[in-house]
Amino acid sequence: MGHHHHGHAHSHDNIKGRNLLISILLNIAITVSQVIGGIISGSLALLSDALHNFSDVLSLIISYIATILGKRKASSLKTFGYKRAEIMAAFVNAATLVVVAIILMIEATERLMEPKEIASNLVIWLSLVGILANGFSVLLLKKNAKENMNMKSAYLHLLTDMMASVAVLIGGLLMKFFQVYWVDAVLTMAIGVYLIYMGYDLLKESTKVLMLFTPKSVDIKEIVESICTIEPIKNVHHVHIWQLNEEEIHLEAHVDFKKDIKLSEFDEILEKIEEHVYYKHGINHVNIQPEFDKCDSKNVIVQD
């Protein structure tokens, strides 16, 4: 059975970990100040923002732990190591975004029915603190968020937090100058809708990876057809393609040969397959089972 793996560097892990730690400390400070401020001022929007911030603290801690675990080496009991830790963190973080959003919307509905007078000055100042602190955290994680699903989940939590603080600030100004206290509940509802919108895509993508779905970037039909052009390959079947994590896409397949070739010939053909699927489809882990005159299903997709 042929097997090949293209490796990747992990030189940014320490920077990722440091940036996550800074963001965790900032969010703990924001959460404590907003809880105290929300209780004193009576602002549901501020308390809901604090709840969201608290979920961010938990999410960032999960992301940090996943980053640390992801660096651990494989062993006889964990042959893939902890390479899926960051995908699982992304899934958990996306799910908490949606759960927090539902809680906020329920609270907002109740407050909308019974608006209360709110100490707007405290709301304004604390929302400004939230905007500055979360804005700084967003800038810290922005670069890593483009290439890593775990970091993207942490980034989205912080970005939505910053947007929520902006909404709370607007609400505080409206309450201070126009005494429109129902806007507090409306803004909380808007924050909830926005969280669901942001969390859904990430939840869907991380679920696809965990369920071993074929990545969007991969066309199985095209891969099979192109491999079959290599002589003396007769047929490619029993194909499985899945994404292990952000950096590894695996291909497993059975390959029928027209003649009983030597092992040295198979090695040359395997190298051609590996280079083709890596450069054209980004597949960096190939596992091929060679066959000759074997009686089994020749379907491309076989249900075990």
Task: Give a short overview.
The chain is an alpha+beta fold. The protein has helices spanning 13-41, 44-70, 85-113, 120-145, 149-178, 183-210, 220-227, 263-281, and strands spanning 2-5, 233-243, 249-257, 285-291.
Quaternary form: single chain
**Gross morphology:** elongated
Roughly how many Å is the radius of gyration? 26 Å
**How many strands, what sense, and barrel or not for the largest sheet?**
4 strands, mixed
**Straight-line distance between termini:** 19 Å
Strand order of the largest sheet: 1-4-3-2
Helix content: 55-70%
What structural class should be given to the helix and strand makeup? alpha+beta
The proportion of residues in beta strands is 5-15%
Number of helices: 8
Order of helices and strands: EHHHHHHHEEHE
Work out the number of β strands: 4
Low-confidence stretches: 7-11
Question: What is the average per-residue confidence, as pLDDT, rounded to a whole number?
Answer: 85
What would your notes on this structure say?
By secondary structure, the protein is of the alpha+beta class. Helices cover about 65% and strands about 10% of the residues. The protein is built from 8 helices and 4 strands, in the order βαααααααββαβ. It has a 4-stranded mixed beta sheet with strand order 1-4-3-2, covered by helices on one side. β2 and β3 form a beta hairpin. α1 packs antiparallel against α4 and α5 packs antiparallel against α6. The longest helix is centred in the middle third of the chain and has 30 residues. About 0% of the residues have low confidence.
